[in-house]
Amino acid sequence: MESGRIADTSIAASTCISDDAYCSESARLNREVGGWVPLINDFAQWIQVDLMAVYRVTGVITQGRSDAPHWVTRFTVWTSREGKGKWTPVTESTCGEVKEIKIFTGNCDQSTHFTNRFSPPILARYILLAPVAWHAHIALRFELLGEGPFMLPDIAVH
């Protein structure tokens, strides 16, 4: 994302406080002004990236807002190959191998990079981050890690 290879139009968010330095296209890691800042702080906020093809996503690096002490401290990650409301949460096994939605650790300040690795890596076209805890106000800049694109075989359904 930081490189600009992902178009601004491929990054979408639930809401943002303005159309300039705080909307979805401002969520790129190391952006000097702003970051994604939603209009309100609640659990309905999200930001998603359309990679335009299926990639092997191995992790995410996050930062807070560049111009204010606001950042996400915990978040969930949801993935999809099709979009259109078909989202699968990244999960982790707990006692007895019960799968629960994984809560990822976010930042503890506005500028430090915090890296979360996905184990195993995720094959997805769409990646959605949903904040579940934050400092002062939801604010996020991030980068996806991975490789691709990959061509998946067509699976016939009979």
TrEMBL record:
<dbReference type="InterPro" id="IPR008979">
    <property type="entry name" value="Galactose-bd-like_sf"/>
</dbReference>
<protein>
    <recommendedName>
        <fullName>F5/8 type C domain-containing protein</fullName>
    </recommendedName>
</protein>
<dbReference type="Pfam" id="PF00754">
    <property type="entry name" value="F5_F8_type_C"/>
</dbReference>
<dbReference type="InterPro" id="IPR000421">
    <property type="entry name" value="FA58C"/>
</dbReference>
<feature type="domain" description="F5/8 type C">
    <location>
        <begin position="1"/>
        <end position="147"/>
    </location>
</feature>
